[in-house]
Predict the structure.
Amino acid sequence: MKHIFLACAHAPDQTPLPGLVRELRAIERALAPLHQRRLYQLESNRAANTDDIFHQFTNTADIEVFHYAGHAGGELLYLEEAGHIKGIAELFGLNRQEGSGQNTLRLVFLNGCATLGQVASLHEAGVAAVIATSAKINDEAARVLAEQFYTTWASEGRTLDDAFKAAIAKVHTIPEAANRDVVFEMMSLEEGGYEEAIPWGLYLNPTLPDDGIKLWALNQAPRLPEMVLEGIRPNPTQSLRELVFLFKKNTPELRTSRQDPLMALIERLPWIVGTHLRRLFAVEPGRTMAEPSLERLRELIVSYTELTRFLSYLSLSMLWDAASEGFEVEPLPFSLIPVKEDLASTDFVFRTRTYFERLEQIGKTSPLNLEPHFRNFLQEVDKENGLRPGYLLMEEWKQAMAEGQERFHALVQSRAADKPDAEKGLVLEAEAIYAGFLKACLFLTEYKLHTVRSIVVDKIRNLASDQPYSHHLISLHAAFETPKTATTVRETATDNYCLLLTPRREANDPALLNDVINLSPFYLDRSSFIGNNINSYPAVFTLDYQRGEGFYKEYVFHYIDRDVNHDYAFAQNNELAITVDGAQLPDHIEAGPESLDRFEKIHQQLEQLEMDIPQNN
C-alpha cells in the first residue's frame, strides 16, 4: 500500500511552536478517509528526530508524500536534533522503484521557515514536487494552509494543483496575507520575501519530462466493476425489488406465504435498518419517493450510513463484552466516540473491520456466533470485483453530505459530468450499490431486535419461584403498524432500558433472551425512559458524537427515523443530548426528574466504555 508520512518536531534549542500538533492533527483529520478506505497508509510522528525519519524511509516502501512541520532553515530541518537536508535528501533518493528508477516519493511539503534552499537537493534526489517557503512563516497561517491543502487534495478527483491553489486562497483570507502573490514552479522571489509574496511556493522538478505531477489526484473516482454495472437498473426501486425476490427465494417459509415479500424483508431487518429500506419505498403513508432525484440519493446515503453504523456498533458491543470479561484489547487507532468535527470522516466499515480484528485476536466467540457473518461481509467489501468500488463511492457521498450542501452539490456535478443521464444515473448507481450491501447483510434477518421496557420482580414470601423476573419487551421489527409486544419470564434479569439482539425465536419461547447482544448505550429507545406507558411507540435514537469536556461533556444522539430531506423548524426534536446529570429534551416532551435521571446511566455507560477499551488518538 502507498504511504503518506507526516512528521513534526519541537527542536529543544528553538522557540516552541504551539501550533505544530494542531497542524498535524488537522492534516490527520483531512487524510483520515484515505487511510480508512485503504487508499493510503497514514504514518504520523509528532516528535520526530533524524533517526525516526531514516527508520521510516528505510523500512517503509512506497512513501509518496512526506510532510514536515516545525523549525527549519535553508539547509536544516530542526528535528529533535538538527537534520542536514543533504543527508535527508540522499535518503529520499534511495526511495526509488525497482526497474523504472523513479522516486516513489513524489511530494515533499516543508512547512517550516525559509525552506526554499532545500528544494534543489530534493529535486536532485528525484522528488517530483516540493512545497517550500522563502521566508519566516506565521504559525497559524502554516496550519490554515496545510489543513486546506490536504482537505482539498483528499477530496475525490482534486489534483495537487487544485489543492495548492485552494490552500493559497484560504491563506488570502488572513488579513496580513490578503494581497500577496503566489509562487509556482521555480520563479524567484524579489527582495522582501514575505512582505511582497506568499512565502509558500510549489516547485516542480525541472528534470522531469512534463508537469503531469500537477494533475496528480490522491483520491481518484473509483470505477465500478461489471458486476455492479450490470446490477444498475433503469428505474428506482428495481435493484431493491430484485433483492426482495432473492430474499423470498432463499426464505422457505415465504415461498408459500401470502405476505408481501417486501414487507417481510422490512419487518425481518432490525428497525434501525428496516426503517430506511421502508422510506425508499414509502416515506410515510401516502407519500412515496419514486423519482430518481437528489432527495432519493440523500435517503440512499443515509440508508447506507445507518446500515454500516449498525454493523459497527454491533461489533463494538461484542468487543466491549469481551473486554468486560477480562480479555485484553489492543488499543484502537481512533476515538471510540468521535467529536463533531470528525463525524463527517468517520468510516463505519473501517471501524467494523478494526473491532472485528481485535475480536479475532482475542479469539472469543459471541453469544450469537456472528463472527462468520462479519468475516464474509468484510471479505466482500475487500473485493475489487465485489463491494469495494461501491464502498468507496458511498463513503465519498456520505462525507460530502455531512460536510454541507456546497460540498455535496460539487460532488454531484463532478460525478454527473460524465454520465449521459446525469443525476438520474447517480441515483440508480447508488441504489445498486446499497442493494449489494444489503444483500451482504441479509444475515441480520436471522435475528430479532427488542427494546426492554420494564423488568418486574414477581416473588412472594416463602413461595419458590424459578423465574421471578418478568420482562416486558417490544419487538423492533415493524413497518407502519403498531409494534408487537411480548412478556417473557426468566430466572435472572437482563438490563433495563436497553436494546437486545437475539436469535429469531417466538415471543413465548422461554429461551428468547438466553443468547443476546446488548446494543445499549449505542442505541436507546427514548420511550423506555419517559413516562409509565410501557406500550408506547418506540423512539429509537443512535449515538452520533460527543462534545464538550469533563463535567460539560455531552453525548449526542439522533432520531433514527428523521427525514434527511426535511428542514425541521426545531432540529432539536431529532436530537437527544445526554449530560452528566440527565438529558436535554424538547420542550413539548413532558418528563419529570425521575425520567430525566434515568438518562444519567447512559452517560455513565459511555464513560465506562471509554475506560474499558483503550484508544490511541
Q: What stands out?
A: Residues 294-324 form the longest helix (31 residues). Residues 79-84, 184-196 have pLDDT under 50 and may be disordered. The first strand starts at residue 3 and ends at 9.
